[in-house]
Amino acid sequence: MKKIINCILFVFCLINFLYLNCFAKKNNNIQNSNFSSNKNKNLSDEKTYRDKKEKNYVVEIPKVVNLDSRVALNRENINIIEREQRNRLLKNKVLLFEEISTMNIKSKTWHENMKYLATEIKKKFLHSIIIIETYSNTQFTDSENIKESEKNGLIVANFLKNDCGLNNIICVIGLGSEKNTSFNYNCARISVIKDVGFYDSIQ
Q: From the CA atom positions of the chain, what is the Rg in Å?
């Protein structure tokens, strides 16, 4: 009788052991499945968040079109400019305009006139750009007239900068024997325009 009871208990323990073992494996598989699902979901959520974050931080830089020609000018040296740049610069408001003869460019009267002009610019238009258009009509070719007028423009610019102490940006363009509004073929037309300051917007 005792042997029978022991056999029944053994069988019962064996069945119980097998049942618990199978149940644990099944439960473990479910947990692994849930963990894998949660991991994939977390990775998917992280990728979506990262994509949104990257999208939010994308900076679109607009193309620079017709950048204000004043910005490209050299502030230390005299700028020799081309016709197109001269035209763009003179689209800005002209604060002061003077026409000076270059026939007697080294005379005392010419020096006095230039010093008076420099004083006016210092007093009223300290933060400005000076554009010097020079004309020259000689008996030579067009290219030689342009060279001669550019040379005169540089004389005017250097006098304003070195002799009169102007720290403004200065631009020079020699236009040779080209006609101008006053039909004066040997002159320097001096235009003063507003400079681009640190807080000014570029138009």
A: 43
